[in-house]
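Z., the sequence and structure:
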Amino acid sequence: MAARTVSTYADDVAIPEDGRRYELRNGELSMMPAPGTRHQGILRDLLGILNDHVKNARLGVVFPAAVDCILSETTVLQPDIVFIDAGRVAIITERGIEGVPTLVVEILSPPTAGIDRTVKAGLYARHKVPWYWIVDPGSSTLEAYALRGNTYEMARRPEAAGRGSLPPFDDLVIDPSALFN
């Protein structure tokens, strides 16, 4: 059996621009398929809601994909949305987010749903990302998870027909049904 080659951030950035998106998951380089239009519509709408709230309350900074979230030299992910609270904006550099963001959001797509719920959730937890949201267009749900120890626990899941706040934004009320129409 051949030894596994471990890729690093330097290997990732050395890939010639080919129009594709890549992530580095525990030293393993993975190509990511382009998201579909429904995914991008949800991303646009949720990004607008979060960005307006964060900017108006001066809470920090929100970035959409594709921005590198450099958790380590062998783990570089590109969440759909990244939030960095105001006290930690020093981790924002020209290269990307160099350190642990406050919140990452993944919008599920059929080809990546399993990875987002297991592999990426595990990597975010290992690197101590405090909050992880999963947006599931298939079930029209928005789930907020809080890091407890080394795993994520459900913190809040507003019903599709109801409105609710999601941590870490206790004063921001989101109507999930507005995202899925």
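DSSP finds four helices and 13 strands in the chain. The mean pLDDT is 88.

Let me know what you think.
H.
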